[in-house]
Amino acid sequence: MNDFLTTSVKDLRRAPMDIRTVALAGRVQNDTSPEPLLQIVQSVLGLGKAVLIEEKTSAHFGLTQFPSVSLRDIGNSADVMIAVGGDGTMLGVARRVAPYHVPLIGVNQGHLGFITDIALEHAPSALREILLDQSYDVEERDLLHAQVLRHGEVIHEGTALNDVVVGRSGLDGMLELNVAVNEQFMYAQRADALIIATPTGSTAYALAANGPILHPQLAGVTLVPVAPQSLSNRPIVLPSDSVIDIELISNRGAVVHFDVHSYAEVRQGDVIRISQAPYKSVFWHPKSYNYYATLRQKLNWNLNPARPSTESV
Questions:
Q1: Which of 23, 26, 174, 211 fits a disulfide with 57 by CB distance 3.0 to 4.6 angstroms?
Q2: Is position 219 annotated in a ligand binding site?
């Protein structure tokens, strides 16, 4: 068995742990019903576990009957966290709890997500399997850490589970960027945007820009230009431990987005330095989880190509 397969199998094994307290976070939008979240709360309580509600979720839905906890204190309060919503909810929670090594379970209250893989109707049985039977697979996902440097000083920094995107702040002209990897100049890029994506983010914005799909267990990061001036400019996959420096050359303003949840404005001469975060997001999946089945459903790989009509026009 090669090194990659050995590492992957090893990562999916975990000694049983004493799961006593479960924290929950939900999608906090004005049009969101609290019912899916309350269904999951009742399922967890029914398994004999204590429940905590993330403080913003608690305030949004008025769930004062349960103790609340901040994401900053989650590592000292809960053994595992459940995100109820969509991939956006999971992304927002995952980035913030990753430094505390709190594992995450994703329950999707809408359509099947790439990382919120448990459908709401299957949640009771899946949570029993994970929380009570302690039968689950463990998956670790890389994150990116990015700093915006101005005259060598850090003016903003953030993390991303999906991607860091350097994009135009207005409608005029392309961005002009110099890109270096591990202090070696790679290329000058003229494009509407440049996406720096993890394997998790390879099925998000990067995929829409014709980037490659990277399996979540690959140790890589992909750079995908959006509408580049040169048609020969193609995405490139770099080792995950690369340090990527992106310097804004043009005098037009630009914006750096971190998973679309936060952003920073940059100007000519600023450098965006991107590297692998020193911690990972940890996901717990039911044994029935199948990454390729998710790809088939989300990307319609299960549909046969349309056959050309044989009828005359």
A1: 26
A2: no
211 is in an annotated binding site: no
- What the chain holds in terms of domains, given with CATH numbers, is 11-136+286-299 (3.40.50.10330), 143-279 (2.60.200.30)
Is residue 137 part of the annotated active site? The answer reads no
Both tokens of 210, joined, read 């014709």
| Sign of the torsion angle spanned by Cα atoms 218, 220, 221, 222 | negative
DSSP, res 192:
S
Neighbouring residues of 216: CB distance < 8 A, sequence distance ≥ 6: 139, 141, 199, 200, 291
Q: Which of 73, 79, 87, 137 is catalytic?
A: 87
Q: What is the mean pLDDT of each run of 10 residues along the chain (313 residues)?
A: 36 63 94 93 97 96 95 92 94 94 93 86 96 96 97 96 93 90 96 96 95 95 94 91 97 90 91 98 95 89 60 40
Tokens of 72: 């900053």
Q: What is the pTM of this model?
A: 0.88
163 is in an annotated binding site: yes
88 is known to lie in a ligand binding site: yes
The answer to whether 164 and 146 have CB atoms below 8 angstroms apart is: yes
Distance in angstroms (rounded) separating the CA atoms of residues 215 and 206 = 14
